[in-house]
Amino acid sequence: MCLGVPGRVAEWLDRDPLLARAWVEFDGLRKQCSLACVPEAEEGDYVIVHAGVAICRVDATQADAMLAALRSLDEPLDPVVEGQS
Questions:
Q1: What's this model's pTM, rounded to 2 decimal places?
Q2: How far is it, in rounded angstroms, from Cα 31 to Cα 79?
Q3: Mind listing the pLDDT tens digit of every residue in the chain (85 residues)?
Q4: What CATH number does residue 63 fall under?
C-alpha cells in the first residue's frame, strides 16, 4: 500500500519542467520534493507527496481533513478500560 501525505509548497527552488523542485512543509518539517508532476503549483498550495514526489494538488480543506485523519492514527483505537482485560 502507498501513502501520499499532504504538504504545503513553501518555496520554489527550480521551475525547470523536468527538474522542478520546491521546499514542501509537513506540519513544520520542510523537505525538498519534486514538483515535476505539478508544475502549476504555487507557493502556499497544498500537494500530495509520495516518496518525495508531489503527485497532485489538493485544496486546503481536503489537506486539513487528511492531516486530521493522519494525526488521529496516533490516538489509541481501543482504550483499555480499568478492570477489564
A1: 0.82
A2: 34
A3: 678 999 999 999 999 989 999 999 998 899 999 999 999 999 999 999 999 999 999 999 999 999 999 888 877 666 555 555 5
A4: 2.30.30.140
Chain length of the chain:
85
Please give, one letter per residue, the 3-state secondary structure of 2-65.
CCCEEEEEEEEEECCCCCCEEEEEECCEEEEEECCCCCCCCCCCEEEEECCEEEEEECHHHHHH
**Which range marks the domain in which residue 45 is found?**
5-71
CA separation, residue 17 to residues 47, 69, 77 (Å): 17, 33, 43
Question: Is 62 domain-assigned?
Answer: yes
